[in-house]
Amino acid sequence: MENKLKTYNRIAAVVAFIGLPIFLWTLSDVPSRTFLKDAISLLTLIAFSCMLMQFYLARSNNKLLKVHRMGSVMKWHKAIGYVFVTVLLFHPLLIVVPRYFEAGIEREEAFVRMITTFDNPGIVLGLIAWCLMLILGLTSMLRKQLPITYKTWRIFHGILSIAFIVCASWHVIMLGRHIDMAMTLFMLTAATIGIFLLLRNYFLPTPKNA
Ligand code: HEM
Ligand code: HEM
User: Fold this and answer.
1) Residue 21: pLDDT band by 50, 70, 90 thresholds?
2) Averaged over 43-65, what is the pLDDT?
3) Which of 25, 50, 172 to mutate to test the pocket of ligand 2 (most atoms within 8 A of CB)?
């Protein structure tokens, strides 16, 4: 029975955080572009959805995860974190990569212009989210070298995750090509419930998860 529940949980996670965004992406009525541009866009969207999933692969979701060993959940949390943080750190560069295959466009100039467009709130939010994500990755990688206790690090990591996901979601909703009402609803629901679970864990700790 326990093994069955574990399998159902894994299937539900894949369907909710990978299947659903892909499905909504295919439904959006945005005109398709080159294969490379569409592939990069889908990869970015899946990577972002996996960032949302991180909130559910944590102790704050322990009711749903009680059939799983926390050690194994954390293994997934760390692997997904490192892989998709890396993918998203390259996302601003990936936006201009397809231009290398188009004639007559200055790629470097386009990239610099994009990351210095400070009068576009969507770009500013992207830049803030990018910096927060870099700090999240670096402080996870160097956790053992930091002069703070594990508990303090965990709270720092949790609060940083909330600030990051708020800025990133706002950025994606403002700039995303494939972000229609259904996709917005998916992202806002996943982010809100994830943040709620974490804050409930901080403000209403039970002896098990304090
Ligand atoms: C980059 C690699 C990452 C590593 C190595 C990592 C590692 C960890 C570890 C060790 C914990 C503590 C688990 C526990 O003791 O309960 C944790 C918790 C958590 N992580 Fe990550 N993480 C990473 C990325 C992320 C990202 C990108 C997000 C969000 C987008 C995130 C969100 C969270 C949340 C919300 C918690 C729960 C904090 C708490 O219980 O106080 N993590 N992570
Ligand atoms: C230097 C920081 C950033 C810049 C300059 C930037 C720029 C952009 C631009 C211009 C778009 C629209 C792309 C298009 O229409 O093809 C976009 C979309 C997007 N961005 Fe960012 N971004 C940044 C950081 C981030 C971060 C940190 C994340 C996630 C954690 C993120 C996630 C996304 C997603 C998911 C999309 C939607 C893709 C789509 O709908 O096709 N971005 N970004």
Assistant:
1) very high
2) 94
3) 172
**Which ligand has its closest atom nearest to the C-alpha of 127?**
2
Taking the complete model, does pTM exceed 0.85, yes or no?
yes
Do the domain assignments include residue 209?
no
Cα 87 to Cα 94: distance, rounded to the nearest angstrom: 9
Confirm whether 208 is domain-assigned: no
pLDDT for 78 = 98
Nearest to 85, CA basis, from 114, 39, 48, 45: 48
Confirm if 28 and 175 have CB atoms less than 8 A apart. Answer: no
| Greatest mean pLDDT among 64-73, 80-89, 96-105 | 80-89
Please state the domain count of the chain: 1
- Residue 143: φ, ψ to 5°: -50, -45
Domain range holding 181? 2-203
